[in-house]
Amino acid sequence: MVLVGIMTILLGVGSAWLIVSFEFPGQRILSWALVLPLAMPGYIIAYVYTDLLEFAGPVQTLLRDITGWQAGDYAFPPIRSLGGAALMLSLVLYPYVYLLTRTSFQRQSVALVEATRVLGVSPTQAFLRVALPCARPAIAGGVALALMETIADYGVADYFGVSTLTAGIFRTWLGMGEPVAAAQIAAVLFLFAGALVVLERLNRQGTVANPLGRDVAAARIVLPPLKSIAALLACALPVTFGFLLPAFVLIRYAINVGDPLLSSQFLAFAGNSLTVAAAAALIATGIALFLAYAERRDASMQNQLLIRLATLGYALPGAMIAIGILALAGTLDTKLAIFMRDTLGMEPRLLLTGTIAGLLFAYVARFLTAAFNSTQAGLEKIHGTLDDAARMLGAGPGRVLTAIHLPLLRGPLLAGFLLVFIDVMKELPATLLLRPFNFETLATRTYRLASDERLAEASTAALLIVALGLIPTIMLSVSIARSTFRR
């Protein structure tokens, strides 16, 4: 976690400062392209770089061909290590820090920047003394989001053989057959996740949009040629290694090899993924609309507390949610089996454990926050006078919702649906633990093939996951490109 925090700060804060403060070639394109690694799941980028950098991979093979070295003649940093896992996660998680920090830098008053320039302070000193302290809450919030994703990760940790709490849950439950010990590990994981949630919320409350009230960004400094090249490289490297290179490798493998089951079972895997993702997204969007509208009508402390509890799932790792659902489903199945046998005289069987219903429940509990935040933000933009006018005309709450709010919420509801849909498509730990027998999705297919060192065959499923992940990422990038400040 510490390594991921440090790397995401370096990549996210550094690139955000360069994009906001300086003018250099490619700056406008990179301002939105830096978000693209969000579309690349951590476990997929880990599979790609392991294939590239391992001993038999193209990088080390080329190095030996050029130098004539043998295996023992050189030392190459192992990719399957704690540092390698941290680097893989940082490459796909730094956009959280970049997005929040970039917005914070843009909202800082032009008067602050102009004052430092009048005093003859260099851009570097202005960054360290003024911009960075003012952006501290946003940086902490972005790091907290990145760390939430880090503690929830299973694919990278398992593939690299790194001991994490989430990987420990799998090993303890599935490998050692100790569900009680796995639940205890999940409880420790819950404490870490809860601490990150508190940190993120505290820093969100401490964010100041613009203390001096001037919503005008300072003019960017035009860099000389050499510094322009350095800034271009500094911003292009995270995009290249976090998205472009892995995507190129996957496309190349998919064209040359691909999935041998592409014409038959692959379509079934894709169908399974699309079906459960659409169902979970639809359920989550409906619940999010209900919760957001309930909070709008009655923002009491009790309602807000219940809503916060309902939307806590995004901070909880999928493995931990799956453990809780398995424990609950197992208890209920046991009681139902006894009831069926003793009362109804029926043959007992599992009704909840290992079913689509349990899987959908896990998805909705995990990703409801994404749909709720989008819906709540949309409702906040609808002025309360519209509600008051409708009620004066005799319209009830249901009529107000269907006639006024729903037409105005089409965009936020669609955005929330897409966010949940893509998150479900990428989710791995909960799917591995809760899926029905012989139920494969694109994520589990990619995981299984890559674990067998068959990355070329896994490339088709992985590429489809990445392509679908690009949809909300591109929407976010377009929004960023349009949110320019007055000059």
UniProtKB/TrEMBL annotation:
Keywords, A to Z? Cell inner membrane, Cell membrane, Membrane, Transmembrane, Transmembrane helix, Transport
Domain ABC transmembrane type-1: from-to ranges = 1-201, 270-476
Coarse class of the primary localization is membrane
State the compartments where it is located.
Cell inner membrane
Q: Give TM segment ranges.
A: 6-22, 29-49, 79-99, 180-199, 229-255, 267-293, 305-330, 350-372, 400-422, 461-481
Q: Which CDD domains match?
A: TM_PBP2 (cd06261)
Pfam families xrefs: BPD_transp_1
Q: Name one GO cellular component term.
A: plasma membrane
- UniProt record, GO biological process: transmembrane transport
The membrane-topology field of this record reads: Multi-pass membrane protein
Q: Which PANTHER family match?
A: FE(3+)-TRANSPORT SYSTEM PERMEASE PROTEIN FBPB 2 (PTHR43357:SF3), INNER MEMBRANE ABC TRANSPORTER PERMEASE PROTEIN YDCV (PTHR43357)
Q: What is this protein called?
A: ABC transmembrane type-1 domain-containing protein
- Identify the species of origin: Effrenium voratum
Q: Mind giving the lineage of the organism this protein is from?
A: Eukaryota, Sar, Alveolata, Dinophyceae, Suessiales
